[in-house]
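EI: anyone free to look at a 127-residue chain?
SC: sure, send it
EI:
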Amino acid sequence: MKINSDNKEMIDNIDIHDNIFVGCNYSYKNRILFLIVNNFRNDYNIIFNNCIFYSMQSCDFWHGGNNILGINIVEESKEMNELLEIQNTYPGLYEGSFLDRGITYLSVEIEVNSGDKMLIICESIEI
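SC: here you go
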């Protein structure tokens, strides 16, 4: 399944609740983030293509744990708005940037039961 801005509501069909967050791997050259998840039988990847931003808050707010609570689209992420503000403030400096290519990006948030969150801004997701 491939999810992009045209079918972003399909993210609701991804059932990863209580799957285990194993880790992630980012290919800087290819701009792809591989999220490694375990569904209690085997590891699999969720692939985020053409990433322009990702962050992981890792504070263990509550108890420890690595079970995923959910994955969802953030319609107005603060981080995407900040990137657009930089782009619009200095258009000559960032001409030709990834934000200047007419791509509609998705802001995707993954929350773990420890209270940790991961935000990925990308063009598409593959499962």
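EI: The chain has one helix and nine strands.
SC: 👍
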